[in-house]
Fold these 3 entries.
Entry 1:
Amino acid sequence: MDLGVLVDDKLTMSQQCALVAKKANGILGCMKKSVDSRSREVLFPLYSALLRPHLEYCVQFWVPQFKKDEELLKRVLRRTTKKVRGLQHLSYKERLKELCLFRLKKRRLRGDLLNAYKCLKSGFQKDGAKLFSVVPSDRTSVNRYILKHRQFHLNRRKNFFTLRVTEQWSRLPREVVESPSLEILKTHLEAVLCNLL
């Protein structure tokens, strides 16, 4: 355990996912007991301040690797959105759309892309060069900065940050990849991710 993240000897994150889901469900239970209001104006800020940090803390490292772990975390967000007054009759997908929330998988992808940008463009360029190699592309339909990750021989590395982000980064439109600042990138990503996954 390092930085509060549980990893087993096979580098799987199931224990971490279970721990995060347990903490988040405990907080959700406390919210239910102590907050009478079920309006989105009350519940959404509570979710953002109390639950989301647990669901996203260090997630670039411990991303769920198995469907059962993904489902465990998804259940937390599903329960949270179902508590909002007037949305109980809607499907999970419709509730997320109504609340302008991304699914957890999409939030993790957003975090991956933001971290890739920091590695490549910000003050971490030297570290980023160790993680990725940039393959210039002359094709105008895609961005000019196609990422290529180092090759790994172990199958357990397939969920590592460098492997997860390279394909997604290389699919981004040119204007997103060439964003002059992190804030502009965030704005572009919001629009792009609405159409992804």
Entry 2:
Amino acid sequence: MPRSETAISILGFGDSLTAGTPGYDPLDQSGDERSQYGHWLTLLGKRERGLTIEYDNQGVPGELAQHMLPRLRKIMNQRCYSIVIILAGSNDLGWGRDARAVYGHVSVLWEHALDKGSEVVACTVPPVGFAYPGLHETQSRFNEMILGAAAMYKNLIVADLFGGLSNEDGLLIPEFDSGDGLHLNTEGYRCMGELIWLRALRPLLNSTI
């Protein structure tokens, strides 16, 4: 990322938690724009750094990580991005997929974005709001793999969303729950945007000074 840059392009890529479900639909840009973490990133970038962030919300509700690569390729063939934020795997884990297999699909997404010259923010998957032992165990293994990824890839940084959105029981903090135990409300997306800014984007920007 050039040091003199005052405007940066950021791709938010993933499933419904990127899209902003249930409050926002990026397909037709309808709903409450505050119900997407990219809205808060844009505000923080302007407030703290005077940046103009060109944020592209490419979240598709329900999409599995194992199906995402063709879409990411198409998007990144059409436009270059300074930073790509990837949050994927929640749906795969919810369908009972093996944590290591899901990690394999997600890591391919990181590698494609890195190969295109972007810096990558790899996000851990957020908690859910209900006790589901099998899911929690698999999710924990998956997130541990993601947390270790920064040491394996140059130009990749991890944003631990699970750690910032969960309570002492490892469940989604109720104040962030949209009501279904899976998706976030406006306050939850605000917190998510702040976590990505503080734990990933700010350090990336600091490294260019």
Entry 3:
Amino acid sequence: MVELVADLRRRYLDVFSTHLQSANGKPFYASDLVVFGVLDRQIGLLEAMPSLFAEKNIHALAPLLRIQLDGLLRLHAFRIVESMHDLSSHIIKGKQLRNFKDREGALLQDRHLVSTLSKELPWIDEMYSTLSGWVHLSSTHIFTAVTEGEEDRTIKVGVGGFRENLPEGLWEEARGAVGAIHEATISMVEAYFER
């Protein structure tokens, strides 16, 4: 995980510095400022991943992955609106993204952003649903504290380190999610800066 995070962080910084060097005295736009904010948040959240994986802290990891997915969705919103400038001004003024409309007149609610992006990234719908289940208290939290017992009609209950009993496949999925979210985010940022 440390190597993946270091590679993604380096790539984010490369995209950012390449853009700044190519700007060479050109003005920044409101949308640039929003993208810079997304980049900074993505890097900060990404930097927290290695320790969460090492500690097997799914309760912190999954919601932070959901926030990282949020960054990707916010960048996607720029691609489906009539005016990036108007959307950026809306966000900078502290207004909710979900109250802004895309070029077809649909509100930029997360479900709409996921739906429109799923045409390009088919994995995003399932990932969004799974990660959202870790944000609000749900059965995912209950079944990390309670598992089936070894004897018939028994359960095992534990908290704290008990979550270490989670299947290894869960951690592989989480590693894949980190990579997928950030690969897509980097691609979107590169495309934005190329405009």
